[in-house]
Amino acid sequence: MENRELSKRECLDKAEAYCAKAEHCAADVRRKLYEWGAPSEIFGFIEENLYANDFLNDARFCHAYVHDKVAFQSWGRLKIQASLHALDLPDSEIRKSLDEIEENTYFANLRSLIASRRSDSPEKLLRFLAQRGFTYEEIQREI
Fold it and tell me: How confident is the model at residue 1 (pLDDT cuts 50, 70, 90)?
């Protein structure tokens, strides 16, 4: 493989294609740019263009992330919130997305996790559910 530095246009094209395939956040794009060997001085330019052309959208990403983590991995609010904070997303968007969680699905997930671990000791069950991001109050409500 050729070891040359990518141009600004090539980096932007690659980043647009990357974002067009699935929802990503700015941190994902920066990680990809680094992997591709893009010069770090163009990271800001690329990010600005992606936001301007709606390839990146924090609200859309947060909503999709929260939905997928609840629906497919049965994560609790605390774990989702911590993961989104780690991606440097705005607190306002994180809060809005967490507020949109469907309560019936959320607590059905929690009940399912409790049922699947009924044979565990109460302490082990509580630790497991806390690691999944559920609050003590939510766990107590469903036990």
Answer: very low
